[in-house]
Input
Amino acid sequence: MANIYAYIEHKEGVLDDTSMELIVAAKKIADGPVTAIVTGAGIDAAAQAAAKIYPEVIKLDSPALAYPNAEVIRKALVKVLPSDAIVLVAHGPFGMDLGPGLSIKMDSAFASDIVGIDGTDGNLLKIVRQEFGGVVSVHATCDISKGAVLSIRPGAIGADESKAASGKITDKTGEAGDLSANRKFLEVVQPEAGDVDITKADVLVSIGRGIEDQENIQIAQDLADAMGAVVSCSRPIVDAKWLEPARQVGTSGNTVKPKVYMACGISGSFQHLGGIKGGFIIAINKNPNAPIFQVASVGIVANILEFMPALTEKLRG
Ligand SMILES: Cc1cc2nc3c(=O)[nH]c(=O)nc-3n(C[C@H](O)[C@H](O)[C@H](O)COP(=O)(O)OP(=O)(O)OC[C@H]3O[C@@H](n4cnc5c(N)ncnc54)[C@H](O)[C@@H]3O)c2cc1C
Output
């Protein structure tokens, strides 16, 4: 039977939403128990939360694991996991750091950014990945007979929110060995508090590179005002310093749960979509093949610089 493990990300005792997604991915690989791995310092609350999702939880609890330092966590996991372990990680910034090096240390297979799992054919796991910015789906196989590290794209495979388990927590910190590191975390820098909190908004008018010019942001603001919405954005808009970081949606920005998310001139990269949890997505894009249309409830092929002012006029009327 496959030994499947899910590395659980958490912050201050609260599990990342991907904790409920990795168990769904695991069940698509094989039936049978899946073990959660929770690492950190003073992590009883996180381990207990994981035990509500997973039947088995391995806890590694040490001051040396206080920060999510992939270098140390890789060393520890190699000690505590069997050599043929199949380890699932979320394909976010941390999973991208942890996963490839872990597979090298475990001498196992590695597949990244998986968006679908179609079961197995003998030792071959059938996976789906996306290429060319989501325009092409690639169906591939991965030999998992000697273990594997698989990074699963957040939001792609679904979530088991039942939290019906009452798992057994095992502390394996003593088996983790030397937890020293060359890479040292100096401090955690919290993002500056902005004048808005997009995470609390019911309706977001979100702009991407399609807005073309800083001056055009007023067009989005006018539409947001007419809709009683808040303006958010993709990362290039923040990188260009056209809007403040507090308005960024995505894996390196904010996670939002609005009732309506209007994506204007946003292509739909997985880093952006990873920050949208639920809601009715309306996508407006001039490219009919933009990946955002694959997740949108309503798709409108249009030039946003014409569509948004026209909609504002309608709403004002
Ligand atoms: C580690 C890492 C973390 C990241 N974190 C984030 C994150 O948190 N959030 C995030 O958003 N990105 C993030 N990114 C960047 C991400 O990969 C994409 O580059 C980014 O999301 C693209 O933003 P966009 O959709 O606005 O731009 P593009 O991908 O350039 O898309 C612009 C879209 O606008 C359309 N368009 C152009 N003009 C018009 C018009 N006039 N009318 C209508 N449509 C038009 C185009 O067809 C296109 O689809 C991250 C990247 C990395 C590597």
Q: What stands out?
A: The chain has two domains: 4-175, 198-316. Residues 93-106 form the longest helix (14 residues). The chain has a mean pLDDT of 94. DSSP finds nine helices and 17 strands in the chain.
